Amino acid sequence: MSSKPESDHDVVVAGGGAGGIGAALGAAKAGARVLLVEKYGFLGGAATSSNVLAYCGFYKQGPEPVKVVGGVADLVLDEIKGLGLGCEPFRSPTTDNWIILLEPETVKLALDRVLDAHGVQVLLHTRVAAVSRTADRLQAVTLAGMEGRWRVAAEAFVDATGDANLALIAGLPCRTGDDAGYLQAATGPIRVGGRDRSVPIDRARIVAAFKEYNWTGAHPTARQDGGIFAEVPVAGDMWWMMYDHELVDLTSKSFTQAEMAARSAAGDYVKVLRERVPGFENAFLLQTGPQIGIRESRHPPARYELTGEDLLSGRRRPDGIARAAWPMEDHSVPGRPVYRSIGGEGFADIPLDCLRALGLENLYYAGRTIGADAAAYASIRVMGTAFATGEAAGTAAAGPDDRIEGTAT
Fold it and tell me: What is the CATH number of the domain that holds 112?
């Protein structure tokens, strides 16, 4: 244990993705002294660590973009815009969903700046290694960083790790995957450079090329639509989501196999583009991302689990503190996503009890750790919704529940 003295904060947030950013800003705006810890050397979650270069969930489905998530997420979007990225809604030609296209270096810098402007202390290259607790409360966390380990006490804590790492270390029984233990597939988004931008991307040629590749290629893809692709803002390269990988469990062995298979597939797929699709004659693999994109891992126990029926009916509720608008996007079968639209007005309310840990009074969840059944989880896991649940979790962690007004516009 390091000799570094114990530090006191009002709220400690574990995880620097969209949920953690939302939680840190929500708690800071409520007047709390906030510490945010992140295992990587940058913030942003999947947007910066996994090449998921789109914020999903800010807009509901429909012929026109209707924004349903605001609050502190708008502070982030404004900072990104100030750095030259437009953040205009973009309708995906593959799914017809409205998304915000991203450029990861811009996102990293914007998040640094917005947290600094709101007085949030950030520790990168830092993980939660252990906890101290009573029967019903967390008292402190032990952090592991470059200088060793040290203890940090706080009044409340937010698990925004995505993988429920804080809840797991605290001893809460976590469910893996759905009720049967099956996990949604991981994904390997890539960036492709060297494309002739004067030649439109020909989806039909991509589909035909992979129909042929799938007979003999080492990494046949189940996608038959050419995947999800767009032009990366500013940089202009191609962002492409084509490869999914089945995760059978959460072991290091399985994750290693997934990472290596995704990199191998990326090389193959770019070669297919180069050899068979016009405009890609000089294409090369620009980036696979620091890690594969994880859609699902552990689910910690919450006081309420949002249900698929809540979303299919577009349920509104007086205790709602965030909105879920992204369709239920189920990747249980790799490469064959199934979409089910949100009912009602195109969004459903998420109650505070989805964000409150069952068994610990002062632990809150944000992002994809919140309480949700398998169907609802397929919607709430996206980053736009994570900003909203994060803000609500941070605000609740900072003080009485009556401070929470929700983050929907």
Answer: 3.50.50.60
Q: Are strands 148-159 and 363-365 parallel, antiparallel or unpaired?
A: parallel
Contact 342, 324 (CB under 8 A): yes
Strand (E) or helix (H) holding 263 = helix 252-276
Within-domain flag for 2: no
Neighbouring residues of 239: CB distance < 8 A, sequence distance ≥ 6: 51, 53, 54, 101, 189, 190, 191, 229, 230, 231, 232
Q: Are 342 and 348 in contact (CB under 8 A)?
A: yes
Is 118 found in the same domain as 220?
Answer: no
Which has the closest alpha carbon to 398: 164, 157, 167, 73? 157
C-beta separation of 274 from 205 below 8 A? no
Domains identified in the chain, total number: 2
* Predicted local confidence at residue 2, as pLDDT: 46
- Whose tokens are 């029967």? That residue is 135
Same domain, 22 and 131: yes
Same domain, 240 and 333: no
Residue 296 and residue 151: Cα distance in Å, rounded?
30
Q: What is the mean pLDDT of each run of 10 residues along the chain (409 residues)?
A: 61 98 98 98 98 97 95 98 96 90 97 98 98 97 96 97 98 96 96 97 97 95 93 94 95 97 97 98 96 97 98 97 97 91 97 98 98 98 98 94 50
- Look up the domain containing 303 and give its range: 7-181+296-403
What are the angstrom distances between the C-alpha of 36 and each of 83, 122, 326?
23, 5, 27
Q: Which of 255, 287, 319 is the last residue of a domain?
A: 287
Q: How far apart are CA 157 and CA 168, in angstroms?
A: 13
pLDDT of amino acid 7: 61
Question: Helix (H, G, I), strand (E, B), or coil: what is residue 346?
Answer: coil
Measured between its terminal Cα atoms, the distance across the chain in Å is 46
Do the beta carbons of residue 300 and residue 168 sit within 8 Å?
Answer: yes
Give the residue from 34, 38, 58, 65 showing the smallest Cα distance to 49. 38
Two tokens, residue 93:
């030609």
